[in-house]
Structure of DUF2179 domain-containing protein:
Amino acid sequence: MKNSVLKEYSIITLGIILVAFAIEYFYAPNNIAAGGVTGIAIILNAVFPNLSIGVVTLVLNVVLFVVAFMFIDGKFGIKTIYASLGLSLIIWGIEKFLNPFAITNDLMIATIFGALISAVGMALVFNENASTGGTDILAKILNVFFHLDIGKSLLAVDFLITLASIFVFGVNVALYSMLSIILLGIIVDRLIEGFNVCKSVFIISKNSYEISKYIIDTLERGCTFLSGVGAYTGKDINVLYAVISRNEFIKLKKFIKETDPEAFITVGEVHEVLGEGFNDIRQY
């Protein structure tokens, strides 16, 4: 249990470090306000240079948490609080001790690589059932007080931040900010799908019971027998169904090849699995 918790928080920590790196070395030096609380902090830092992005992010997150608890009965997991406040502290630490600079002054390169690095970090955090706070809380506030859907609220928040950046940084930079927001959304979704991809397997074999024992005893996964009838032969058959990881499928395929080379197998990809042995449905 302790090792599992340590692993979760280690992954979250790596994720927020990547997000902080993207902000301090790609976004902030190029005035790219890619939505969220950090986007607001970048804009405020440009108007008031003495304001640290890390400190502004920390203050805004704390204020938003307080508002959420007071007005919308905010229920935030410990991991989300850790991720959002931890991100603020890491940004502050980079500014305080590492003297961040622009790795590139090319806005397109900064937008693409900033979005890519930030998306990897955010996907790691989201995949551990946490979030970096900020935008999520703002969107929830809009949802409660103005009855906007959460998806539309998120888009509205990022749009308003980008709109504000026009008055500070100009239309050109603001459009790059909007491009970064779009890229972030697309890349994060694709990465999370990739993290959670499993193989859905249907097997028809004369040795189905032997294969099922291999899945249960060796791979330590569950499986199910489905009753079927061969359309050509008219005979009753057992169809074995299982959901396993990609690595486990490689082992299973090798075992089936050795056990029954004439087995019939269909394989599909599933992008989310909830239940025993996978993600706990109660956390979603």
Residues 2-195 form one domain.
